[in-house]
Amino acid sequence: MKIALVADHVGPLSRSGEIDAAAVPMAAALADRRHEVTLWTHRAEVPAPAGVTMRTLPGHDGVRDIPTAAGELATTWAADRPDVVHALSWTAGLTSLSAGRDLDIPLVQTFGDLARPGQPDATARSRLEAAIARSARLLVAQSTAAAADLGRRVSRVAVAMIPCGVDVDVFQPAALSAQRPPGPPRVVALCPLTGEYGADMAVRALRWAPHAELTIVGGPPPADLPTDPAAVRLSEEVVRCRVTGRVHLTGAIPDADLAELLRCADLVVCPATSEPVGAGALAALACGSPVLATDVDALSDIIAEQACGELVPPRRPEDFGRALHDLLTDRTRLAGYRIVAADRAQNYAWPRIASTLEAAYHQTVSHPSRAAV
């Protein structure tokens, strides 16, 4: 099958939006199943994996560049038509719909996150998302909450719940014989530095764990941290919370370096107020690290039975801080979560997720009027 994946930009997990970061391992896993995969993106910060063709779209990843990008896709697809197109954001969906308007190519759409009240241009974006959804053959939701939300917003469109995967070759536990580094408890937060991902709440929670150190992975490249507005605001929050010297910002780092950090962590925290994908939590579990997360979206599914970590209601920093303290002082509970974590992540290994995607693609192409499961 010829599969075209369309993403805004692709890069390491600590740099890209999570659904964009998932595009490369998704493409690789589909190529491993002997599909002809082309990954289209406006900007690539990582190389194409073996067996995948990566093509660069003109412009950036904004709405204003859609006509130019769609024109290039339309020309290419008219000459070499893919069997299915999978768009990995709402802007990628608009581009793909425009490009394939006269070619009758089935569109599979993953939104990542949907527009929410309070976001810039939320009303206009919601209307565009609904239009994309009605034109798609299949909507892929990455959490049970997202599947329910899509079902409420758009009727008569097939919705499949297919979670994000994790690259278990990159993100894997330390050897059983490895010794954990000495020193104070190590907490890692993998998140962009913007508000909804909760980097500020991770800093505030550190007040309940006076001996712990927090490493925040994400944001711009390390050289840009001193002038990045979000990093500056977060540094000011560190001072206000009186945890100076115990918080370290790394900026964006390669996935291999991230995996090493996660393996050495006593606990990984995901304090987001919205988390539609959960790729960071999956990477942590795959490295054998327990996760303390907010009970939202994909995180609710990933930490479902709370056997590999714990869930706390969102927007409650005191509860999050107390849970952080309780976990770091209960080494037996952490050890138990660590044992279960890597096994839990195997349920999300990309080969397994790619198999489910493949079945959905085949059903969408062969039976366009039937819902995929």
Topology readout:
Layout: E1 2-10, H1 18-32, E2 36-44, E3 52-56, H2 66-79, E4 84-87, H3 90-99, E5 107-110, H4 122-135, E6 138-141, H5 144-153, E7 158-161, E8 186-190, H6 199-205, E9 213-217, H7 229-240, E10 247-251, H8 255-264, E11 267-270, H9 279-286, E12 291-294, H10 297-302, E13 309-312, H11 317-328, H12 331-346, H13 350-366
Parallel strand pairs: 1-2, 1-4, 2-3, 4-5, 5-6, 6-7, 8-9, 8-11, 9-10, 11-12, 12-13
- How many helical stretches? 13
Name of the level-1 CATH class of the largest domain: Alpha Beta
Strand order of the largest sheet: 3-2-1-4-5-6-7
Show unreliable segments: none
C-alpha-based Rg, rounded: 21 Å
Number of domains: 2
Distance between the termini: 19 Å
Shape from CA axes?
globular
Find the CATH topology of the largest domain. Rossmann fold
Largest sheet, in brief, is: 7 strands, parallel
Give the helix proportion (percent range). Answer: 40-55%
CATH homologous superfamily of the largest domain, by name? Glycogen Phosphorylase B
CATH structural architecture of the largest domain: 3-Layer(aba) Sandwich
Spell the H/E element sequence: EHEEHEHEHEHEEHEHEHEHEHEHHH
Strand content: 15-25%
Structural class: alpha/beta
Oligomer: single chain
